[in-house]
Design goal:
alpha+beta; homodimer
Chain lengths: 112, 112
């Protein structure tokens, strides 16, 4: 079974989530530190601000969608195998984005 | 608010979900027909079979992970804006993959 962490970060500094460059820098760092393995990554810059980022992982995927005007970020971390790297990535993302509040759901899914 | 459809397809013909080429062909077609807009797509071929596919959409993202040896496919469709295209994509994917059973969850999330 895999773990899918679905989270909403609220009250995030808009400066941290407005542009692809910043988001990419954070996500690259978090993925490397957490022990996940990125196969590829794609980004979309909304104008004037707002980012979508999707990382294909050998463990499944990680995605972020941001609404800077509302200090809001939607996060998915879906991995198969051990839970540890996904939970570590989540912890690191909290530290990076420092949301004022978080809504989190964990779903069990994947290889039956 | 956005819609996130999380589904597990079981009892899928392994021949339909073993290789990137077939998955890509199906997903490209379904996304075009459903009115979603792909910004980019990434694929990973597991050996000897099994596929991960992630599409970054201007509406958010769509992903598929397959375990052909178990006839199993994990699907996410997350879109912001109207629900229609996501629901249509889900219906088309059912028709394409013809699973014997489906477990589906719908989560409301996104721009608050």
């Amino acid at each position: 079974m895999g773990i899918h962490i679905i989270a909403e970060f609220q009250g995030v500094d808009p400066g941290k989530i407005s542009k692809v460059e910043k988001i990419q820098e954070v996500l690259d760092r978090v993925i490397a530190k957490s022990g996940l393995h990125a196969v590829s990554s794609s980004f979309y810059q909304f104008e004037p601000y707002g980012v979508s980022a999707v990382y294909l992982l050998s463990e499944s995927h990680l995605s972020v969608h941001t609404w800077p005007e509302r200090g809001y970020l939607d996060l998915d971390i879906f991995t198969c195998g051990e839970d540890g790297p996904a939970l570590k990535a989540f912890q690191l993302l909290k530290e990076e984005f420092q949301p004022k509040s978080i809504k989190k759901r964990i779903i069990r899914r994947g290889n039956p």
